Amino acid sequence: MSARLGIGLAAVGRPAYINAGRAADLGDRRSVTELRARTEAVLDASYAAGIRYVDTARSYGRAEEFLAGWLAAHPEIDDVEIGSKWGYRYVGDWRLDVGVHEVKDHSLAAFTAQYAQTRALLGHRLGVYHVHSATLETGVLADAALHRALARLRETGVRIGVSTSGPAQADSVRRALEVAVDGAPLFTSVQSTWNVLEPSVAPALAEAAAAGARVIVKEAVANGRLAPGGQDATPGARRAAELAAELGVPVDQLAIAAALAQPWAGWVLSGAVDPAQLASNAAAEHLVLPAAVRDELAALAEPPAAYWRARSDRAWA
């Protein structure tokens, strides 16, 4: 059983995303019916591989709906924990050519509306609800009224968390750890981007784990930059691929194994779009990285500002 790998639905719940290789992965097979079937196939493969955590979000197109349908079709499955996120709205209208695919809103009104939508689809199966890409700038980590509303949800048994992105992730994680309601920490799940090209949040994630929060790693393959066929010519990605070849494994396995090797990492998310990718990602749990390889990987980090600037420039495809 895969005790520490989760499956994220960002890449299968909507037709466009920023991952590399979308044309090869999906081609023109992106209708609602086709992506629903793809999501179900990935979830079937994930469950068969022992994965018991599924990550989705309101902004992942129809991913919550697809997941709800899969759960309804498998009433015998009662051991999967579901995490979702609120704070972005999907506005892409199932098209590839729109200028804006999602809109951020961290207000209390947005939480109220989006939680109602999530609850209608996932019901009692929702186990974790994250603020999607929490930052200091939006005020979501200083909004006392919102925090009280989140605490009321916490009282129903739903774990409250934050996800983070951007070069200031560590600041968001540390601020989230300071938030308490009724004497108890509010945010006890932290989902952050960490990979060998952008590991800067690691000290803050170690602090989160030490404080008792559950840490979830996302984007371990750097939106496809550390995946087979990613065609990334940057020095770090190229060297990672060389190291993987020297070990005789695909580069995605190397990247995910590096994330799993972090002592503070609870779950590491796969973003697979088909069962074959899922199988390759899952094999990383059995990959033990030699010390020399770990040392080389630690030297691949890019300046955070440069990494995130390049990520923000990626086209939705």
Describe the structure.
By secondary structure, this protein is an alpha/beta fold. The protein has one domain: NADP-dependent oxidoreductase domain (TIM Barrel, Alpha-Beta Barrel), CATH 3.20.20.100. The protein is 40% helix and 15% strand. The protein has twelve helices and twelve strands. The protein has helices spanning 22-26, 32-48, 63-73, 108-122, 144-154, 169-178, 202-210, 235-247, 251-260, 275-282, 291-298, 304-312, and strands at residues 5-8, 53-55, 81-86, 88-90, 102-104, 126-131, 159-164, 180-181, 184-185, 189-193, 214-218, 267-270. The strands form three sheets. It has an eight-stranded parallel barrel with strand order 1-2-3-6-7-10-11-12, surrounded by seven helices. Helix 2 crosses helix 3. The model has no long low-confidence stretch (mean pLDDT 97).
What secondary-structure arrangement, pairings included, does this model have?
Elements: E1 5-8, H1 22-26, H2 32-48, E2 53-55, H3 63-73, E3 81-86, E4 88-90, E5 102-104, H4 108-122, E6 126-131, H5 144-154, E7 159-164, H6 169-178, E8 180-181, E9 184-185, E10 189-193, H7 202-210, E11 214-218, H8 235-247, H9 251-260, E12 267-270, H10 275-282, H11 291-298, H12 304-312
Pfam family, one: Aldo_ket_red
Protein name: Aldo/keto reductase
InterPro entries: AKR2_Oxidoreductase (IPR053135), NAD(P)_OxRdtase_dom_sf (IPR036812), NADP_OxRdtase_dom (IPR023210)
